[in-house]
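Quick one, tokens below:
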């Protein structure tokens, strides 16, 4: 989800492939004849070494939008087809990440619009039933990386079996419309889960949830009870880095000074309840 891992294809003029291929796909295979690829790796990243850049290009006189999506791509030149979605059963609260966008004018003079969205769905035979959607479409120039936090709007209570995460430098690129030169940069995306409803459903039990934000380097401790407690942070060698008192039902702790890496957070309280989670800070 941080777009750090890429490899090049084995074609005569290679293109960038976002890893893992079991999750991510692009329309690049349709452009192997020209060697002009709308989606590629860039070092212009929000955090880390790389990000994804999606650029709308003119290929053989046709508009080809940069795209990156969860699913797979069936390559057949202009009859190619994107198949959106990979297996997924969660019910996240929000779809989040970082982007910047430079729109170009379309052939009619209107400003191009990018697309950033995620769709949860469930298959009913051969019909895909949409369950929830989180989306952002904008024609505004965003010159520096900007955080997006898009709530999922749920339409029913079904359990998903598929998630489609889709980015495009031109919203209507699927029908070959867009502004040549529009660029959308995407980096460090994630899915957020609000566990407050779970806590309220188990209010008679003592429960603790340790949540973390990889990008802001925050840890949140949520409880449905108040007792003297603490969290301890360890590196992967077992060295204790810090100890912090937990006082309320919801406490925030920031570790902005820590380096990128994997850490262990351990909660313990006066009632003898303990919980340990592994966390990753970018």
């Amino acid at each position: 989800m941080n777009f750090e891992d890429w490899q090049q294809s084995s074609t005569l003029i290679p293109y960038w492939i976002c890893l893992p291929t079991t999750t991510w796909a692009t329309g690049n295979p349709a452009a192997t004849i020209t060697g002009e690829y709308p989606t590629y790796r860039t070092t212009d990243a929000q955090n880390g070494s790389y990000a994804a850049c999606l650029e709308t290009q003119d290929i053989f006189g046709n508009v080809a939008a940069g795209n990156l999506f969860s699913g797979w791509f069936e390559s057949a030149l202009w009859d190619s087809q994107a198949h959106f979605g990979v297996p997924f059963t969660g019910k996240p609260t929000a779809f989040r990440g970082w982007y910047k966008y430079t729109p170009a004018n379309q052939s009619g003079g209107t400003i191009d619009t990018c697309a950033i969205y995620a769709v949860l769905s469930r298959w009913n035979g051969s019909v895909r039933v949409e369950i929830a959607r989180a989306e952002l479409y904008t024609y505004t120039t965003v010159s520096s990386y900007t955080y997006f936090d898009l709530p999922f709007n749920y339409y029913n209570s079904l359990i998903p079996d598929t998630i489609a995460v889709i980015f495009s430098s031109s919203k209507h690129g699927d029908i070959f419309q867009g502004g040549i030169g529009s660029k959308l940069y995407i980096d460090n995306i994630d899915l957020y889960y609000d566990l407050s409803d779970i806590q309220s459903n188990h209010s008679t039990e003592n429960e603790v949830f340790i949540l973390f934000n990889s990008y802001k380097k925050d840890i949140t401790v949520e409880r449905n009870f108040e007792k003297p407690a603490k969290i301890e942070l360890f590196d992967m060698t077992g060295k204790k880095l810090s100890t912090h008192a937990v006082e309320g039902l919801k406490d925030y702790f920031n570790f902005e000074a820590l380096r990128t890496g994997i850490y262990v957070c351990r909660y313990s309280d006066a009632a003898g309840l303990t919980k340990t989670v592994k966390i990753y800070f970018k």
